[in-house]
Amino acid sequence: MTYTPTSPTPLLDPVLKELGTEIISGKIPAGQRFTLQDLCTRFGISRTVAREVMRALEQLNLVHASRRVGITVLEKKDWAVFDKSVIAWRLETPQERDLQLHSLTQLRIAVEPIAARAAANNANPEERTRLVELSTLICDLGRSGMGNSPDFLNADIEFHTLILTSSRNEMFASLASTVATVLTGRAQLGLQPNHPSEEALDHHERLAAAIASGEGLAAEDYARMLVSEARESLAVLTPAS
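Request: output the structure for the sequence above.
Response:
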């Protein structure tokens, strides 16, 4: 495939996505080597763009570049697994999709309950009010059969992001984009139902109320129940191998 300057996106983006997806899917296996000239020839791009692609892949720990041996594809254990591009490409790859969804859900189970407890202690009044507003919106949309709508997704992302950021723990806050990416991926893959379970909607409301009233232990419990429910739903839709 040749990429021309008339493409609506920068040359770097489509080439990077195609190579990243091929590495993650195993089409380009770990240990395989190629050169900048190989990229130029294959994609019809300049050496400058090829070098930018190589650097971007290096930043994602998908390849390692050396003057002597060229560009070497790295093993899965080396990938920058928290990077949103790597997560998105894994979700788009059938061989990686289920593993990515399950691992990210396990991460949420480990982090979000503790973040919710911290948010109950540290959130400011505006954040507490907004969480309640978002939980009401999420429930209204879900009960109206709009659980797989863009409005529901945006509200859900803001809800979970706000919990992480209002915890005032910079490590938790740094995971906000990761959680947003997996929520988006679930919706794009059709794994978010139009009618979420009443239990899940109720947990959103109770979690927001607990944080708003400063009830840390209750917030932790409701957050754990919420993400555990998501794990159980995922197990039915995409059984782990």
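Residues 12-78 form a domain with the Arc Repressor Mutant, subunit A fold (CATH 1.10.10.10).
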